[in-house]
Specification:
Elements lengths: L1 H22 L3 H14 L4 E2 L15 H6 L2 E3 L2 E2 L7 E5 L2 E10 L2 E7 L5 E4 L10 E8 L5 E12 L2 E14 L8 E4 L1
Parallel strand pairs: 1-2, 3-11
Antiparallel strand pairs: 2-4, 4-5, 5-8, 6-9, 7-8, 9-10, 10-11
């Protein structure tokens, strides 16, 4: 009986390591993300630091995104601590480079201009690490976008699980939009 318990405990510890690697949640990575977030917080501008254009504009080019300033969302939860937001004109791009992303979905809201990207696997891993969402923020808009990762569940160690929910809304009577990632 004792040998069986040790074997089960060993299997559980091994599975926990696999799941932590799949979800990208090792302690060192979390500590690194926290220190990077603390260092980079001073570089972020408020989301509404620049006025939003009254008329819709075309989707930004790669060069425009490269030059886009980092912005601070209205609210960011611990799950999105490693994510970065960039804004050019009325367009917002939220990039989560260290999250193991399994899927991204628009749960509700306007589809116009919404785009997703999941980075291909890198470094010999078979799991994709990193992803981003992009969408325009315009008065009257509302959106909910969900970023999923892998984790333990009924379907085994690689069950799709919610990781981050991005919510964007700009009510007609509000001076600025509200964008959260948690």
């Amino acid at each position: 009986m004792r040998l069986r318990f040790v074997w089960i405990a060993g299997m559980a510890a091994g599975m926990a390591g696999v799941l932590a690697a799949a979800a990208g949640t090792s302690g060192a990575q979390q500590d690194g993300a926290r220190s990077a977030a603390a260092t980079d917080a001073s570089e972020e501008r408020p989301l509404d630091a620049e006025p939003f254009p009254a008329e819709p504009s075309k989707q930004p080019t790669a060069a425009e995104w490269k030059a886009a300033p980092r912005v601070r969302l209205s609210r960011t939860g611990p799950a999105a601590a490693g994510c970065r937001a960039y804004r050019t004109r009325e367009w917002l791009r939220i990039r989560c480079p260290e999250l193991t992303v399994s899927a991204i979905a628009l749960l509700g809201g306007k589809t116009e201009g919404v785009a997703f990207w999941i980075d291909p696997p890198r470094g010999g891993s078979e799991l994709p690490r990193g992803g981003e969402v992009m969408f325009p923020i315009r008065r009257g808009d509302r959106r909910v976008i969900q970023i999923l990762t892998f984790g333990p569940g009924y379907d085994g160690p690689f069950t799709l699980l919610p990781a981050i929910v991005v919510q964007e809304q700009w009510l007609d009577d509000e001076p600025a939009p509200t964008v959260t990632a948690s």
